[in-house]
Amino acid sequence: MKVYVxxxxxxxxxxxxxxxxxEQLGMRHLASGDLFRxxxxxxxxxxxxxxxxxxxxxLVPDPVVIAMIEERLDRQDAAAGVILDGFPRTRPxxxxxxxxxARREAQVDAALYVGVPEDELVRRLSGRWVCRASGHPYxxxxxxxxxxxxxxxDGSELYQREDDRPETVRARLxxxxxxxxxxxxxxxxxxxLVAVDGTQPIAAVTEALLRAIAHPARPAGRSEAx
Length: 226
Ligand code: AP5
What we know:
By secondary structure, the protein is α/β, with parallel strands linked by helices. The protein has a domain at 3-116 and 184-224: P-loop containing nucleotide triphosphate hydrolases (Rossmann fold, 3-Layer(aba) Sandwich), CATH 3.40.50.300. The protein has helices spanning 14-25, 32-42, 45-54, 62-73, 91-103, 118-126, 166-190, 202-214; strands at residues 3-7, 28-31, 82-85, 110-115, 128-131, 137-139, 158-159, 193-197. The chain has a 5-stranded parallel beta sheet, sandwiched between helices. Helix 6 (118-126) crosses helix 7. The chain is globular and about 45 Å long. The structure holds BIS(adenosine)-5'-pentaphosphate. Residues 8, 10-16, 32-33, 36, 53-54, 57-60, 65, 86-87, 89, 93, 124, 128, 137-139, 142-143, 163, 172, 198, 201-202, 205 line the site of BIS(adenosine)-5'-pentaphosphate (AP5).
């Protein structure tokens, strides 16, 4: 099973790129945030617990996240390979993922870091609209839908996420950047991190990621971007 993980700050474009890559590479896109939002909508115990953290821009505790992702890795649709989007978000999650994958005779083949400076992250999150059916992301300026308020892909209604309110965006950036750098360090140490400039247009970021996947050994680091 091939495994790529998307790493990046809130709003960096992980979801946008993971969806495109999954389509092009024939892999399953697994987004931890989408799984939590689904659980919140369904009112499951995991959803109720996760909501308490998501509403204040905090990370959901590691054991809850790890159990949820492990369960998804065992589903049939993950067998062709997965692109993990939003997971791992902390070093313990990255270590737990390595153990879980080793049990399935797999490993992280590449960690794809999309770097974007903080002021651009705020601009992206405040202009984002996502669809109710599948969370497909749009942006009022950089990626408007063909018909206002309607998803181009599945025709469902577009809405603004609760945690994209300005005060929650600030809290997400304050609380989530430090653990993200721990994850970057973890994959740098393993030699599988590739960093791309996420400030480019969406298609150029995709091209850079595809090049990085084809040449996974290229050196990378934090760069100046968040
Ligand atoms: P999650 O849903 O994962 O949110 P996030 O990481 O904050 O990431 P986002 O979905 O906000 O952004 P993105 O990077 O996917 O950007 P997007 O492609 O949409 O998590 C939500 C919450 O769940 C967390 O806060 C936490 O509480 C909890 N959680 C989830 N996973 C967890 C974990 N592992 N551990 C603990 N807690 C967890 O793009 C953003 C906007 O920019 C869009 O409008 C898009 O159209 C636009 N855009 C994208 N690329 C470009 C570009 N190149 N140029 C211009 N605009 C662009």
